[in-house]
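--- STAGE predict ---
source: upstream dedup step, 1 unique chain passed
mode: sequence only
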Amino acid sequence: KDVKFHVVLNVFMTTCLTLSVLAGGALGQLVIPPLNSQAWFWILLLALAAYIAEICVTIGFARARKNIGRLAVLKYTTPIFASIWGMLLFGEKMGAMELA
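--- STAGE serialize ---
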């Protein structure tokens, strides 16, 4: 029986959110802005963009069927492109830890 892509996606995203909050809390690194902060707008916008991107990736994997191996290899380029966008758009610097 096939599992619907939205079930996989929602379980994955919920698990990631839960583990991130638990790990951040356990390590004392969970910083939550005040409810009236403008940061919430950007946090929710980023979350929506990430969710839509993950939907596209999940649908792509579901439709790939025979070519899923080729598609899976391309998924590993995500950190490379994220690093490039971070340097170009946000002026981030690449250190030894980011390259490891």
